[in-house]
Amino acid sequence: MCSFIRMRKFLLICFFCCSALVLLKGQTIFTDRPTVATSPNTLPVKWLQLETGFQYQIRDVDLLGNLAPGLKFENILFNGMLLRYGLTENFELRFNQSIQQNRFRLNGETTADDGVDLAPTSIGVKWRLVKDNEKWPDIAILANYGNSVLTDNGGGSVVDFSLLFNSMVFGDVSFDYNVGVLLENELNLRTYTYSFVLAKALNEKLGGFFELYGSQTEDLNALLNVDMGLTYLVSNTFQLDIYAGTGFSELSPNIMFGFGVSKLFLPKE
């Protein structure tokens, strides 16, 4: 039984890694990555988009009675994959499956390691409510449900809801902002989330952004991070991104960085 589970994990990991390498022809791409903030834009009907990337985070461990000064916690996201599909003009389906590793490090040595494994699977929807209204920003609702259905690493259900907004603040500078709630621990633990990102097109290919995001749980464990990065449009259907950031709260990373690729697939005519 254990051999079957390991083989299943290996095959799934290979599939999700290889899926990031597939390229097809298409038209202009607009992505949700690499920022934490999500745009209210939805994909046109029958359009499919793959967004994936690598992320590394490290932070100091500050535990009560910690007997190992210098202990650090690392989170490595090998493939944060998001699939998006336009179901109707203002409604898209979303599927998220990541491959990650968590470990503790002390003086360059690994002291504890969870190993590489599939993260909980998440399915969701994005419903655009307002678009191109002179009096209102663009608005959408995002809802996701996650659970450990493809792995045996445990963990209960996770549900999150967010309101997504977008406005043009001046010229070609856009402002995305989200507010939401995350329900964990059999939906008994609430975490309130927020994110704000300013983005600007630097030329026809290159874009830049600056982002502030965080969360607040009911027991006052706050999270506050910032990041900034660049996106590069290789073609009308293929985009690269790179970013780096840090945090200002106890649970925030000291350093984080990542890069990724996004690809748009058009339906056959």
- The portion of residues forming beta strands comes to over 45%
**Major sheet, described briefly?**
12 strands, antiparallel, barrel
Taking all Cα atoms into account, the compactness measure Rg is 19 Å
Number of helical elements = 1
The gross shape turns out to be: globular
The mean pLDDT is 87
Percent of residues in helices comes to under 10%
Structural class determined from secondary elements: mainly beta
Number of strands: 14
Poorly predicted parts: 1-27
N-to-C order of helices and strands:
HEEEEEEEEEEEEEE
The first-to-last residue Cα distance is 45 Å
Q: What's the arrangement of strands in the largest beta sheet?
A: 1-2-3-6-7-8-9-10-11-12-13-14
Quaternary organisation of the protein chains: single chain
Quick recap of the structure?
With 269 residues, the chain is mainly β. It contains one helix and 14 strands.
How are the secondary structure elements laid out?
Layout (H helix, E strand, L loop, with lengths): L1 H18 L28 E13 L11 E17 L2 E16 L2 E5 L3 E2 L2 E10 L7 E10 L10 E13 L2 E12 L4 E13 L4 E12 L4 E14 L2 E10 L7 E11 L4
Antiparallel strand pairs: 1-2, 1-14, 2-3, 3-4, 3-5, 3-6, 6-7, 7-8, 8-9, 9-10, 10-11, 11-12, 12-13, 13-14
